[in-house]
Amino acid sequence: MRKQRRRIASKHSRPVRVGWQAVALAAAVALGLALRIGSALYGAPDTYREASAVEEPGPDFRPEVGDPPYVVAVDAGHGGSDPGATGVVVERDMTAATAEALLAWLRADPNYQPVTTRAGYDVTATPTERVQQANRQRADLLLSIHGNSAATEASGFECYPITPGRTWHRESVYFARLLAEGMQAAGSTLRGQGGVRYIYYQQGQKVLAEANDLQIRDEETFTVLEQADCPAVLAEQCFVTNAGDVDRFGDTDGCQLAARVYYQAICAYFGTTPLEQAAP
Prior knowledge:
This protein has helices at 2-12, 20-42, 47-50, 91-108, 127-136, 169-185, 223-226, 243-249, 252-270, and strands at residues 70-76, 112-116, 141-148, 158-161, 197-202, 205-210, 232-239. It folds into 2 domains: 2-42; 70-270, Zn-dependent exopeptidases (Aminopeptidase, 3-Layer(aba) Sandwich), CATH 3.40.630. The chain starts with a helix and ends in a 10-residue tail after the last helix. It is of the alpha/beta class. 40% of the residues lie in helices and 16% in strands. The protein has 9 helices and 7 strands. The radius of gyration is 28 Å and the shape is globular. The protein has a 5-stranded mixed β-sheet, sandwiched between helices. Strands 5-6 form a two-stranded antiparallel sheet.
């Protein structure tokens, strides 16, 4: 019995040779288990913070919109003591006329509850004050209306959604595309890649990025987009410094036309049928 016990003891104490593949596999399993335990205890890591870029909304993307009535914030980009750009027309006057025409469409449509970001078009309000007003009214969508300007003969439409990596980015891009497509169908030329661009402030200077540049950046964009609690787009309706642009989208009839395009884009975003005409 004693010899048998020694043989058994010797058998169990014999060194076991393990290949490096087995060691690596065991280490990987242990690491995976540790990560799963850590995730359960402390929460999954913030992959969005570590990502350097985001995916572009695909052709099948649709925003989740809930049920009507939808609160739409209409932001006239300039007003009061802030005239904006001056050219063939004053940007403040053009944005006020367009905003008022858009509000008429939305007020006539029972699917919408329009709100404004200003107490009046003659009231001066900062971008922060305006976006906070939209947030207080729990807007489901925000459209900020502006006019462009340039020393050259630049013309056309462009708009700026919330930038990549921010909340509501994909929904904002979806809405921006609808706006650009509508303006193109109405006769405007589109600037950049399809009329949709991003803008950032770097050391006080505006820096443009095209729609296919989905890099996540630390720099902020327009305040009305940066601080919005809902999908938001800033639209540059036309160049107030270009007579041809103003004839199409900046005079009285042009503002009415742009407002109808904006209204139809809003309806397309929420999936409602647009009215044939606004209330008189």
